Amino acid sequence: MSKILVYLEPNNNSLKRVSYELITAAHKISENVFGVLIGGNESQLQTAAEFGLKNAFAVNFDGDKNYSSTQHAEIINRLIKSEGFDTVLFSANATGLELAPRVAVKIDAGYVADCVAINNEGGKYSYSKPVYAGKAVVKTLINTENVVLSLRPNVFTAVKNPVSTVSVTNFDAGTSSAEAKVKVTSIARNEGKLDVLEADIVVSGGRAVKGPENYNLIENLAQALGGAVGASRAVVDAGWRPHAEQVGQTGKTVSPTLYVACGISGAVQHLAGMSSSKVILAINKDKEAPIFKVADYGLVGDIFEILPKLTEKIKQMKG
Amino acid sequence: MNILVCVSRVPDTATKVFVGADGKSIDPKGVKFILNPYDEFALEEGLRLKEKNGGNVTAITIGSPEATEILRTALAMGADDAVLIKGDNLDSYQVAYNISEHAKAKNYDIIFAGKQSVDFDSGQVPSLVAAMLDIPSISVVSKLEINGATLLAERDIEGGKEVLEASLPCLVSAQKGLNEPRYPKLPDIMKAKKKPIEELDAKPADAKVSVISMELPSKERVGKILGDSDADISEIVRSLHEEAKVI
Ligand SMILES: Cc1cc2nc3c(=O)[nH]c(=O)nc-3n(C[C@H](O)[C@H](O)[C@H](O)COP(=O)(O)OP(=O)(O)OC[C@H]3O[C@@H](n4cnc5c(N)ncnc54)[C@H](O)[C@@H]3O)c2cc1C
Ligand SMILES: Nc1ncnc2c1ncn2[C@@H]1O[C@H](COP(=O)(O)O)[C@@H](O)[C@H]1O
């Protein structure tokens, strides 16, 4: 049976939601699951008990600031070699995508990035990942004994499966950020603003919004839904919104529970960033717009008329 | 400065994808291939660095002989040298291995790559190469500054931006926003046609990952498309709440 190491990431007093998703996914492969948290604290780790994590390693290292991909990869490498893990899971987020290949080289493992499914066919595992901007999906096999995966955030669901406590073992870092040839020196958080990558619901506006002065239409709907604000490239290129909000091939890939596209045509490069969303609602005055081909729900009409009404009705429904 | 830029040949992003007869790769018929868009940012950054500090820019690609086209584009944009390492259907590990084997002999100060190839969208070759060379790397960089042997970079992360510091030699993978890539001028395109391209065969390494099948995404969508009346809007709100249960 596989022995799996799950790379956990701290978030204030708990772990990032993706970490809990990884824990659930790992338990579908094996009972033998361990977490590792580098530079966090014990109480953050204990929150994983809710999702069934029984064992974890805590590594003392400078925190979020001074994060170093090279040092983290080396710590994980030493931990894998000393404990005999054969499978390592990362989130396919900014940190995981950078770290996973480094670890794969160190432990001579095959690596599949941005997995959206782990398939078990009679004990033989294959891994599905979207390719060509989500226009196709490939199933891949890993030919090596060791396996490294990064899982697309929000695709694997975190399932509650409480255990009484996470048994935590300290593991010596054997290195510090002072030795690092690359490290994070500062982080600027978009305070108070929900990021498209972390939100359950994303509401994006397109060129139809016509100007930054009208973006409150999008913001109000996002607020009513408790979601984040996104944008098409047309909006970002026009300078109405920052690039951090761009969804699509040259922006972010999101897969929220609900994606709302307002006045977005649905160009392939935009679809690339949102077509794996669980539910898609599109609002567009052109009923032939390609966005409707991927939509679960649609309203054909003018966003300037529909959005205020839609926002109002959602507020009413939520009481 | 001795600069290496990794470039790959990929289908145009607007290409319609059809699964080929082998059931595990795309049907290349009618597909237009281009220089990977992110690699244009990588190349532009390498060229600017050379223009500022002097030095040499080498473009490298691992692929089929057709990949010569994108090396010509790189040369037309201003790369000094081009290297084609010939190998077909290699996995990311084999690609990275061949880039790193080339780089080991050359002592590059900095290696640029794109954030991801727009075919398999993995974003793994840059970190693999850096790990094989045992040098630091920063991926998905949208702002870069180099002072002496110190490198300052900015990148987007979930919910914010990170500033990182690294020392040369280093590998940097480029995100949109890093710069505005130049268009090659006609005389340079003509000149690039005559420049030599170094060709080598790929060194063998075992494939660590193999593709067993490719399919078009099967996600069934509900497809309930209504008009713009108050009743339609109410019905959609009700559906989202009661059927899809997402609000
Ligand atoms: C290499 C490359 C990378 C790219 N990357 C991205 C990316 O990351 N993200 C991205 O989004 N795009 C990307 N694009 C651009 C993409 O091709 C489209 O140009 C872009 O998505 C269009 O944005 P849009 O839908 O907002 O605008 P448009 O295509 O202009 O669509 C506007 C839509 O609004 C509708 N409309 C107009 N007025 C109203 C109204 N009053 N009410 C309702 N509907 C209305 C119209 O019917 C139309 O469908 C990329 C392109 C390339 C070549
Ligand atoms: N076959 C290749 N030859 C040269 N460079 C490549 C190749 N494949 C990928 N790269 C580089 O690695 C980056 C990320 O690619 P990938 O890991 O395939 O998503 C690309 O933008 C290129 O800079």
Name the ligand types. flavin-adenine dinucleotide, adenosine monophosphate
What is the makeup of the main sheet of chain B?
9 strands, mixed
**Largest interface chains and counts:** A-B, 91 and 83 residues
Helix fraction of chain A?
Answer: 25-40%
Q: Any idea what the CATH architecture of the largest domain in chain B is?
A: 3-Layer(aba) Sandwich
- Whole-number count of domains of chain B: 2
N→C terminal distance of chain B: 55 Å
Number of helices of chain B: 6
Give the strand tally of chain B: 13
What's the overall average pLDDT of chain A, rounded? 95
Strand order of the largest sheet of chain B: 9-8-7-10-6-1-4-5-11
Unreliably modeled segments of chain A: none
CATH class of the largest domain in chain B: Alpha Beta
Low-confidence stretches of chain B at least 5 residues in length (pLDDT < 50)?
Answer: none
- Order of SSEs of chain A, N→C? EEEHEHEHEHEEEEEEEEHEHEHEEH
Tell me what the structure shows.
The complex is a heterodimer of chains A (319) and B (247). Chain A is α/β, with parallel strands linked by helices and 319 residues long. In chain A, β14 (201-205), α5 and β15 (228-231) form a beta-alpha-beta unit. Chain A has helices at 17-29, 42-46, 69-83, 94-107, 216-225, 233-237, 268-274, 303-318, and strands at 4-8, 10-11, 14-15, 33-38, 55-59, 87-91, 110-115, 117-121, 124-131, 136-142, 147-151, 167-171, 182-189, 201-205, 228-231, 258-262, 279-284, 297-300. The model of chain A has no long low-confidence stretch (mean pLDDT 95). The termini of chain A are far apart. In chain A, the strands form four sheets. Chain A has a seven-stranded parallel β-sheet, sandwiched between helices. In chain A, strands 15-14-16-17-18 form a five-stranded parallel β-sheet. In chain A, strands 8-9-10 form a three-stranded antiparallel β-sheet, with no helix packed on it. Chain A is elongated. Chain A folds into two domains: 4-179, Rossmann fold; 201-317, Rossmann fold (3-Layer(aba) Sandwich), CATH 3.40.50. The longest helix of chain A has 16 residues, at 303-318. Chain B is α/β, with parallel strands linked by helices and 247 residues long. Chain B folds into two domains: 2-201, HUPs (Rossmann fold, 3-Layer(aba) Sandwich), CATH 3.40.50; 217-247, no CATH class. Chain B has helices at residues 37-53, 68-77, 92-104, 125-133, 186-194, 230-243; strands spanning 2-6, 9-11, 33-35, 56-63, 81-86, 110-114, 137-147, 150-157, 160-167, 170-174, 198-201, 209-215, 224-226. In chain B, the strands form two sheets. Chain B has a nine-stranded mixed β-sheet, with helices on both faces. In chain B, a hairpin with a 2-residue loop joins β8 and β9. The longest helix of chain B has 17 residues, at 37-53. The radius of gyration of chain B is 22 Å and the shape is globular. Chains A and B meet through α3, α4, β7, β9 and β10 of A and α3, α4, β7, β8 and β9 of B. Flavin-adenine dinucleotide binds next to α6, α7 and α8 of chain A.
